[in-house]
Every structure is written in structure tokens, then in C-alpha cells.
Write a structure and sequence with these properties.
InterPro entries: AAA+_ATPase, ABC_transporter-like_ATP-bd, ABC_transporter-like_CS, ABC_transporter_ATP-bind, P-loop_NTPase. With 285 residues, the chain is an alpha/beta fold. The chain has two domains: 164 residues, P-loop containing nucleotide triphosphate hydrolases (Rossmann fold, 3-Layer(aba) Sandwich), CATH 3.40.50; 70 residues, no CATH class. Helices cover 31% and strands 22% of the residues. The protein has seven helices and eleven strands. The strands form two sheets. Strands 6-7-8-3-9-10-11 form a seven-stranded mixed beta sheet, sandwiched between helices. A four-stranded antiparallel beta sheet has the order 2-1-4-5, covered by helices on one side. Strand 9 and strand 10 form a beta hairpin. The chain is globular, with a radius of gyration of 21 Å. The two termini are 38 Å apart.
Length: 285
């Protein structure tokens, strides 16, 4: 209400999400039958979100990520990026997988990062090399630009894969359990480096994990998926958690609360003033 004039005040429309996953069901074939991986899953990702898909093994979270990437078509529902339906892979969505063998071994680190830039035909060799070196510097690997992948550790290979993805400047970076195969110390270091890189670049991230702790450390928003077939169980805000809060009583209590939600266990009621997460429970379709 415009109190001075006594007239209603127009309210700004909420910003359109960058990514809109609307009622998406995904299926795949086995020799004997069709299996439903997810059932009518919906969520929205906004610019600069660190959005986590969290759930137990087999809940369809990696399948959802591949569908966002354009590799798998939904059997029901639609996925939109910038308001346009996703129908095929594209350079606006780049995937970093869990495996360390994502890098052609005959190319140097710099060549690996520059290759998709050259393949897109948007950059000349000198421009591609300059951009490759820029992003290698951001992940702390400029000194290894002329090294070959077999000389790198697993964590270093993942940093090269991240640099290669970010060099393409995608609208959204898709990461499918990228640190799951690393040892615990390297995994924590990679989580720290990813967050530091996000603080600098502010890219939009869709990140798959089955680790509750990793979801709270890396994400600012978390979607909980039920066991197979994956359905939305809850969506959580987790802005207040990060490396600084790992191991704190509040962090541990939230970890337990998420575990109970994932596996449909009863959770004690909390007064609204004492909630550590803004939780919006959604009924499964």
C-alpha cells in the first residue's frame, strides 16, 4: 500500500529461476522391465546457488543430474534452463564426474582445459590457452600446466576437471559426487577449495552427494530425496553452515535431523525460534 497516496504499491515479481525442474519422472530399461528412478521431482535453482541433491544410493540423484545435462529425457515433466526446455546436452551445462579418467592422457593439463574451448570454435588457440591458464591459476595448478595427467594426484586431476568446466563459463556447473573417490583429507581440502573458488567466481552449482556432512559443508540449499524411486522429501536452507561450523553441536544436530528426514524417522518438534534450518516439507506425489 502506498500510504502517502492511499494506493496499492506494486510488488516486484520474484526472479525467474535459472533452472526449473518441474514434475520430472525418469525411467530406464533393464533386460526384464522398466525401472522408475525418480517420481515427479520438482525444484528450482537460482543464480549463484550451491544446490545439493542429497539422498541414499539408488534414489535417482545422479540420473537427475544427467537429465539436467541433457543426456536423459524425462518420461514425465520438463526441465527448463533460462526458461527454455532442455532437450540435449549443451555448453551451458558442464558436468564434472567422479572418475579421475576424465582427462585425455595424451594432452597436457593446459591442453585438456583448452580443448573444449577450441572444440566450441569460439576461441582461437592463443585465446583458449590464455583462458586455460587463467582458470588453472584459480584452482592453484598453473605450475602444472605442461604436466600430463598421469603425473597428477586424484585431487589434482579433479581440480583440472573443474578448471576445464569453469573455463567454458557454463550457466550451471554440474558435479556428480566429484570427491567421493578421494581420501578423507583430500576430500575435505577439495571442498574447501571449491567453496573458495565459488566465493571468487560465484558460479551456479548443482552438486550430487550421498554424504549429509558434505551437503551441509558445500551447499546453501539442499533437496532431500527418498529411497528408490526418488521423490522430494524436503527442501532445506543451509546458508549458515560451512567449514567453520563442521563438528559443532548445531551441525551435528542438523546432520541427525536430515538423516531422520531421509529415512522417514520421527524427529522431535522444535520451536520455530530454535530452528537451524528453514525446512519446507513437501508431500510426495
Amino acid at each position: 500500500m502506498n500510504h502517502a497516496a492511499g494506493l496499492p504499491t506494486a510488488t516486484a515479481a520474484p526472479p525467474r529461476p535459472l533452472l526449473d525442474v518441474d514434475g520430472v519422472s525418469l525411467e530406464y530399461k533393464t533386460p526384464g522391465r522398466r525401472v522408475r528412478a525418480t517420481h515427479r521431482v520438482g525444484f528450482q535453482v537460482h543464480e549463484s546457488d550451491r544446490y545439493i541433491l542429497l539422498g541414499p544410493s539408488g534414489c535417482g540423484k545422479s540420473t537427475l543430474l544427467k537429465s539436467v545435462a541433457g543426456f536423459i529425457a524425462p518420461t514425465e515433466g520438463v526441465i527448463r534452463l533460462d526458461g527454455n526446455a532442455v532437450r540435449e546436452p549443451g555448453p551451458d551445462r558442464i558436468v564434472v564426474f567422479q572418475e579421475f579418467d576424465q582427462l585425455p592422457p595424451w594432452k597436457t593439463v593446459r591442453e585438456n582445459v583448452a580443448f573444449p574451448l577450441l572444440a566450441s570454435r569460439k576461441f582461437k588457440r592463443r585465446e583458449a590457452d590464455a583462458r586455460a591458464l587463467h582458470y588453472l591459476d584459480k584452482v592453484g595448478l598453473s605450475a602444472f600446466a605442461d604436466a600430463y595427467p598421469h603425473t597428477l594426484s586424484g585431487g589434482m586431476k579433479q581440480r583440472v576437471a573443474i578448471a576445464r568446466a569453469l573455463a567454458m563459463q557454463p550457466r550451471i556447473l554440474l558435479m556428480d559426487e566429484p570427491f567421493a573417490a578421494l581420501d578423507a583429507l583430500t576430500r575435505r581440502k577439495m571442498q574447501e577449495e571449491l567453496l573458495a573458488l565459488w566465493e571468487e567466481v560465484r558460479f551456479t552449482l548443482l552438486f550430487v552427494t550421498h554424504s549429509i556432512e558434505e551437503a551441509l559443508l558445500v551447499g546453501n540449499r539442499i533437496l532431500l530425496l527418498s529411497p528408490h524411486p526418488g521423490r522430494v522429501r524436503a527442501e532445506l536452507n543451509a546458508h549458515q553452515y560451512g567449514m567453520h561450523s563442521a563438528g559443532s553441536p548445531a551441525f551435528q544436530a542438523t546432520t541427525q535431523r536430515i538423516h531422520d528426514l531421509l529415512f522417514d524417522l520421527p524427529t522431535p518438534e522444535e520451536p520455530a525460534s530454535d530452528r537451524h534450518l528453514a525446512t519446507a516439507r513437501r508431500a510426495a506425489a
